[in-house]
Amino acid sequence: MPSRPIKQLYFSVKPNRGAGRxxxxxxxxEAAVLSPINGKVVVVTGASRGIxxxxxxxxxxxxxxxxxxxxxxxxxxxxxxxxxxxxxxAAPFVADVGDRRSMNDMASSVAAHYGGIxxxxxxxxxxxxxxxxxxxxxxxxxxxxxxxxxxxxTLQACLxxxxxxxxxxxxxxxxxxxxxxxxPGWAHYAASKAAQLGFMRSAALELAPYQITINAxxxxxxxTEGLSDLGPDYIDRMSHAIPLxxxxxxxxxxxxxxFLASREASFITGQTLIVDGGQTxxxxxxxx
Length: 288
Ligand code: NAP
Known about the structure:
By secondary structure, the protein is of the alpha/beta class. Helix content is 41%, strand content 13%. It has a single domain, classed as NAD(P)-binding Rossmann-like Domain (Rossmann fold). The protein has helices at 22-25, 50-61, 73-85, 100-114, 137-164, 187-207, 225-228, 232-240, 250-261, and strands at 41-45, 65-70, 89-94, 119-122, 169-173, 213-219, 272-275. Helix 5 (137-164) links the parallel strand 4 and strand 5. The longest helix is centred in the middle third of the chain and has 28 residues, at 137-164. Bound molecules: NADP nicotinamide-adenine-dinucleotide phosphate. NADP nicotinamide-adenine-dinucleotide phosphate is lined by residues 45-46, 48-52, 70-72, 75, 96-98, 123-127, 146, 173, 175, 219, 221-222, 224-227.
């Protein structure tokens, strides 16, 4: 991704052009709605591809120092190299969100490399499908362990440094599936994504004394490598179910995460932000 100047990433405030007002307001013409996050250290899990890679790209292009976390060293290195080639600052770290020790090692390594951790995007997740009849205990555990327990391990590992940050930020990638909607074949996935929100609300209260906020982005259907594994029929059906008539892009989710990480979102905690092109809105299929 080509590097973009930071200024382009923010919305300009339009001055009031009324008589006598222009001079007074001209100083805000170039102002930005979101303060820069230059130099902030962000840990992004599941950054080897899909939404995590999109988050890593948007944060790097916004001036953050990005710890690219993935299970594969090659994939993490490739992502970090691409971010650096585009003018950003990034470094690869290998860890499995289901393995507490590897997450603790990752967080220590990131802090040693960058001097701390200020923002955590707990994004890694899996979404295999299984019917109720076929859902094994192992399949349930795999999904819950990666998606829900993984969020716990990610936060716990980074917490010592988040506490030291002036205002730490945690952003979970949840889903509309579970918290808002259901889908046949994903009972375990839906349970894991709803679990993330219960976790978030209690965690928000424990983190508040440290001025750490925790919020969740709830994507609808977003075009990623993982989603394309579900096949063209699924993607076609989902495209038609979205009022804005397109799947989300990874950047659509990353911009929401960037907002929740910004200084301007410092009074928002324990909340959800649905980014789904209106998919959860229609009361009936006639409305589409
Ligand atoms: P994806 O393309 O399959 O990518 C998943 C990422 O998670 C990969 O980087 C993968 O890395 C990583 N990962 C999986 N298990 C891991 C583990 N145990 N430890 C560390 N990393 C692990 O998925 P995606 O579509 O981008 O989804 C990312 C997140 O968004 C997930 O939490 C998903 O539930 C959520 N989401 C996605 C959609 C959508 O439409 N795409 C919608 C709602 C929510 P490896 O290289 O190590 O496998």
